[in-house]
Amino acid sequence: MRLVVSAITIFVLSLLSPTTHAHNITQILAKHPEFSTFNHYLTVTHLASEINRRRTITVCAVDNAAMNELLDKHFSTYTIKNVLSLHIFADYFGAKKLHQIPKSSTTTSSLFQATGEAAGTSGYVNITNSKGGKVYFSPVDSEDTPTSTFVKSIDEIPYVIAVIQISHVLLSPEAEAPAGGPKDLNVTSLMAKQGCKAFSDLLRSSGAADTFSQSLEGGLTVFCPTDETINNFMPKYKNLTSDGKISLLLYHGAPVYQSLGMLRSSNGLMNTLATEGANKYDFTVQNDGEDVKLKTKIVTATIKGTLIDEDPLAVFKIDKILLPRELFKAAPPAPAPKSPKSAKSKAKSDDGEDADAPAPDGDSVPADETADSNVAAGIHGGWFVKGIFSLFLGVIVCNI
């Protein structure tokens, strides 16, 4: 009987225990003030979020003095991003592994290489373990004598992330080359060329394109319905007021850069360019197997492809128009079974409005009309956990 009690205990604990090692590079470096500048620029360049979503990774941090030497070159933020990308390896190199490199030398891919920003193999870094015990780092396209060496380990989660200090910034001709900023990108032109011409045309004609462009520098994610989807929706779109049309279009953009991987790892509510005051205009990002779905109170759309994923801009193709509850009515709840004598009233109800016809601007659907499914899920989940603990306590009582 003790085996049964032990088995139940292990099962319950498994439900409550985390299954993965999460890491946050910003929090790790925040414990060490000497890396505050490096930490700051990981955030500014959005590299921090990229590090946090990856596994089996190494971050080569440099102290504030080394970062000041880099900043004295007056590079643009986008060039600094490329340089710092060289300091993020797509492999795990803890202190022990660095001193046990086979044949004393190896080459590893950096994030600069993995993102496709580097030309050829210029995003690779040579790691050399010298006879004197020093470990040197040098970009493969650098012709200078290696000067950057391993200093110490800052933090390690074995085979997940290693954060180490190196003595100097890694520089290469390719990484230091001038990099174009987001203003060089034309969001609407890009979408038009990639199968979202109808949506980009609506952005231009409504004036919403300006808001998308202004949001680009701080990060922008766009969910672009296909041309066919837009064309089928046009009769309903024309019934909206001018403000309603703009709000609907802004609802398809988020004022933050989110790669597909980041969307997968950060399910939950997402604010949009239309979010303002009491008008929430948000939706839920939710994984469904290999798919990533966007759920409003009215419809659920699926991401069908990536048009561009280059920080600070991500554009995804979706299969449905995102309909906000602030503009459209939710489908009425399914009627309860009725007796035969109510057939006449049932026939009358069938003549009602289409479920997703536009509602007047600001005509929101009360939250309690759409919360039933969430409540039901909470009840079922609660009874499941209560049942497990009841069984656990019952077995213990029987053995007293």
UniProtKB/TrEMBL annotation:
<feature type="compositionally biased region" description="Low complexity">
    <location>
        <begin position="357"/>
        <end position="368"/>
    </location>
</feature>
<dbReference type="InterPro" id="IPR036378">
    <property type="entry name" value="FAS1_dom_sf"/>
</dbReference>
<dbReference type="GO" id="GO:0005886">
    <property type="term" value="C:plasma membrane"/>
</dbReference>
<comment type="function">
    <text>May be a cell surface adhesion protein.</text>
</comment>
<keyword id="KW-1003">Cell membrane</keyword>
<keyword id="KW-0336">GPI-anchor</keyword>
<dbReference type="GO" id="GO:0098552">
    <property type="term" value="C:side of membrane"/>
</dbReference>
<feature type="region of interest" description="Disordered">
    <location>
        <begin position="331"/>
        <end position="370"/>
    </location>
</feature>
<protein>
    <submittedName>
        <fullName>Fasciclin-like arabinogalactan protein 2</fullName>
    </submittedName>
</protein>
<keyword id="KW-0325">Glycoprotein</keyword>
<dbReference type="Pfam" id="PF02469">
    <property type="entry name" value="Fasciclin"/>
</dbReference>
<keyword id="KW-0449">Lipoprotein</keyword>
<dbReference type="InterPro" id="IPR000782">
    <property type="entry name" value="FAS1_domain"/>
</dbReference>
<feature type="domain" description="FAS1">
    <location>
        <begin position="22"/>
        <end position="161"/>
    </location>
</feature>
<feature type="domain" description="FAS1">
    <location>
        <begin position="183"/>
        <end position="322"/>
    </location>
</feature>
<keyword id="KW-0677">Repeat</keyword>
<keyword id="KW-0732">Signal</keyword>
<feature type="signal peptide">
    <location>
        <begin position="1"/>
        <end position="22"/>
    </location>
</feature>
<keyword id="KW-0472">Membrane</keyword>
<dbReference type="InterPro" id="IPR033254">
    <property type="entry name" value="Plant_FLA"/>
</dbReference>
<comment type="similarity">
    <text>Belongs to the fasciclin-like AGP family.</text>
</comment>
<keyword id="KW-0654">Proteoglycan</keyword>
